[in-house]
Amino acid sequence: MKTLLVTGGAGFIGSCLVRQLVAERASRVVNLDKLTYAGNPDSLQDVENAPNYRFVQGDIADGACVAALLDQFQPAAVINLAAASHVDRSIDGPAEFVQTNVVGTFQLLEATRQYWNQLAATARSKFRFLHVSTDEVYGSLGSTGKFAETTAYAPNSPYSASKASADHFVRAFHQTYGLPTLITNCSNNYGPYQFPEKLVPLMILNALEGKPLPVYGDGQHIRDWLYVEDHCQALRTVVERGIPGSVYNVGGNSERTNMQVVETICGAVDRLAPDKQRGSCSELITYVPDRPGHDRRYAIDATKIQSELGWQPTQTFDAGIEQTVQWYIDHREWVERVVTGGYRRDRLGLKSASTQP
């Protein structure tokens, strides 16, 4: 049974990947997570006692910790999902994003390079380092076109700048040292277990409670939406069949304006949890000032991963939202344990806005 080291495996995407891998019993999964505000052990309750799962609390920026884990467990692949990931938080406090996303990724790469160098020839040839990134590194699109793997980087927020820097280090370690790296750049994820500061869970929970649904600016910012289970299947496909040194864009073929997303959520909440006192959820929609540096449109061209590796999304956006709303309705205890940990669904990302000329 081969071993996979997953970093950030208690986060939203990471925990989904861990649950998939552990449930199939085809590999041993070692999960390294710092357990910041968005790392939630509750998301791993279904697998925490599985014989092929091991959790380690630690920081990817701690090179000694990473080196010890690599030496102890001898993984066949490292899948890096450890990241500070919320744009609004990066506006309020960019230093954390540099430390985790840039310094942390570098330290993880350096420890992995040392480990990989001492492997036997066969193990070296089969080893993979997958770095999970975002489409936000490409900047903003106009009304047409899509991001391809060859699109020039043009990050516009501290978060996307930190991820772009990390991507460049991953590429450099392949070009300079031969480390067999892979990079994926994905579109906006949604689904169960997502921390409730993100758009989809925030709107679901506020709608269920009859609270305002704050929409940035004019609500016409466009994103491509990807169901998290589909994304994790893509990551597994890339680790198994991706060509070292390659970049793969992962998209859901589901472009929607923010307003369309909120309206879809409202429709699902009205159907699944009708409330006469609350009325239609769409009446709760309110417009709030836009955040600084808010990219207008993202769209992913996923042709490469589809044609070369045979992956494509299976979940439609409407069905995925329906399932996600139902999950949050059915798992209020999980939600309460998250929000009582300090997060109150307050708006972030206003510090820079207050200093704009």
Count of beta strands: 12
Strand content: 15-25%
Spatial ordering of strands, largest sheet? 3-2-1-4-5-6-10
Biggest beta-sheet profile = 7 strands, parallel
The CATH class of one domain is identified as Alpha Beta
* Secondary-structure arrangement, i.e. CATH architecture of one domain: 3-Layer(aba) Sandwich
Taking Cα atoms only, what radius of gyration do you get, to the nearest Å? 20 Å
How far apart lie the N and C ends?
Answer: 58 Å
Tally of separate helices: 13
Tell me the structural class.
Answer: alpha/beta
Give the SSE order as H and E letters: EHEEHEHHHEHEEHEEHEEHEHHHH
Q: Please name the fourth-level CATH homologous superfamily of one domain.
A: NAD(P)-binding Rossmann-like Domain
**CATH structural fold name of one domain:** Rossmann fold
Helix content: 40-55%
Shape: globular
The parts where pLDDT drops under 50 for at least 5 residues are 350-357
Q: Kindly report the average pLDDT value.
A: 93
